[in-house]
Specification:
The chain is α+β, with helices and mostly antiparallel strands. It folds into two domains: 2-203 and 305-402, no CATH class; 207-297, no CATH class. The chain is built from eleven helices and 26 strands. The chain has helices at 13-26, 48-58, 103-106, 108-120, 142-153, 233-239, 243-248, 250-256, 302-320, 341-347, 351-362, and strands at residues 2-8, 36-42, 63-68, 71-73, 76-78, 82-88, 94-100, 128-135, 159-163, 175-177, 180-182, 186-192, 197-203, 207-219, 222-226, 229-230, 259-261, 270-272, 274-277, 283-285, 294-299, 333-340, 368-373, 375-379, 389-392, 396-402. The longest helix is centred in the C-terminal third of the chain and has 19 residues, at 302-320. It is globular, with a radius of gyration of 20 Å. The chain starts with a strand and ends with a strand.
């Protein structure tokens, strides 16, 4: 396996693509066959010019990726930039990239099923190992997308990915598939053949506040009542704010005080950001909140976020080198990093410190590519959840892949 990364901060999209390509290609062997290209760009660079430039140069190589509030690589964090990873997979590796569009008109659940079916095409007699999925960051029911995907790929099939983001204007996010620039869509790649070893890690670092409460009335991602009262009451009481004030301060308190869902056996609560406060005091979250769930308000600090990043990296690395999971240690490996933009806002100037912590765990020379997201997709670890995939908020998720 060969891995190479190219990064560009050129202002012109086509120029950025050419520079990133040139840097990535020069580090590959002359006879290398590129199996897959993964591209992440800041929202201002996301466009067909990047994809056409990459596609024209790489011929029939599948290209997937998405936009982010910023891109991440070994070289740093770039609010304006393009990060491109070229992968030459081991002989015998199979892969298939696909997309599902018009999610809002067909429902997230149906889009997930469609994407799963497309990814499976061509894998009838081939071992399936892992899927990587990117979705529009503005779809409300990201959990439905994952449920639909699981129906086709399997309830415990390893999947990781993220929701694309923009520059916190929440206007439009983009997905990349080959030379197609997509919105209101999801894209993914299915890898198989049994030649690749992989491991995942995810943490957030937020801690519970106050007493546990019960979701007494909810529908998907809309929570109407908590402990028999208007859902917004939990924030009105704790923050001593009226609903009208909460609506004005929504972004700030949603970052600092997300809702945490208790999951038996898990080390951390599953976080949910608030998308909106309805006129009746109902709360709409970025991800489903099942009725009957035990929930608590959560709080994050810079220190707890940095500790969580280290733990997630250590978990991913330990799994990759675990002799009980892999029959040999990988000679080469790389890391895909999906980091919530809300962590970046909380960490502020210490965001670079988080990246340095991650690099220290994996090694300074290990290729890393990633972006800041509106949500992360990753499995839970407790045995009773059997590796089921969930949509996470405010987490830092990592996928390490080696040969």
């Amino acid at each position: 396996m060969e891995i190479s990364i190219g990064v560009s901060i050129e202002k012109d999209p086509a120029s950025a693509a050419r520079e990133a390509l040139k840097e990535a290609i020069k580090n590959l062997s002359s006879d290398s066959k590129i199996s897959l290209a993964i591209a992440f760009s800041s929202i201002d660079l996301a466009g067909t010019a990047i994809l056409k430039t990459i596609g024209d140069s790489l011929a029939n190589t599948p290209v997937i990726g998405c936009s982010g509030a910023a891109v991440i690589s070994n070289k740093g964090i770039f609010k304006h930039g393009l990060a491109l990873m070229l992968l030459c997979c081991p002989k015998g590796t199979s892969l298939n990239a696909a997309s599902a569009s018009e999610i809002k008109s067909k429902s997230s659940l149906e889009a997930g099923r469609e994407l799963g079916e497309k990814l499976l095409s061509g894998f009838k007699d081939t071992r399936r190992d892992l899927s990587i999925v990117f979705s529009d960051g503005l779809i409300e029911d990201s959990s439905g997308l994952i449920h639909g995907l699981e129906e086709k790929l399997g309830m415990s099939f390893p999947t990781i990915g993220c929701a694309a983001s923009d520059n916190l204007n929440f206007l439009r996010t983009y997905l990349f598939l080959n030379q197609n620039l997509l919105a209101d869509s999801a894209v993914g790649v299915l890898l198989g053949g049994g030649k690749l070893h992989f491991s995942m890690g995810i943490r957030h670092g937020w801690k519970p506040l106050g007493k546990p409460r019960e979701v007494t009335f909810s529908k998907g991602n809309l929570v109407l009542e908590i402990d028999g009262q208007s859902a917004a009451k939990i924030y009105e009481e704790y923050l001593a704010r009226k609903i009208t004030e909460l609506k004005k301060e929504l972004k700030n308190f949603s970052i600092l005080y997300p809702l945490g869902i208790y999951l038996p056996g898990e080390d951390e609560y599953l976080l949910r950001n608030i998308i909106s406060i309805e006129h009746n005091g109902a709360l709409r979250f970025q991800g489903d909140v099942p009725q009957g769930s035990q929930v608590r308000l959560m709080i994050g600090t810079r220190t707890s976020c940095l500790i969580a990043a280290k733990e997630a990296a250590e978990e991913a690395k330990a799994g990759l080198f675990n002799p009980y999971l892999n029959n040999r240690s990988p000679k080469k490996y790389f890391v895909l990093l999906f980091d919530s933009i809300f962590r970046n806002l909380l960490l502020s100037r210490e965001a670079n410190k988080e990246l340095e912590i991650i690099k220290k765990v994996f090694g300074q020379d290990i290729p890393i590519i990633g972006l800041y997201t509106y949500g992360e997709y990753a499995p839970l670890k407790a045995l009773n959840y059997r590796g089921k995939i969930y949509a996470h908020n405010q987490g830092v998720a990592m996928l390490a892949i080696g040969e």
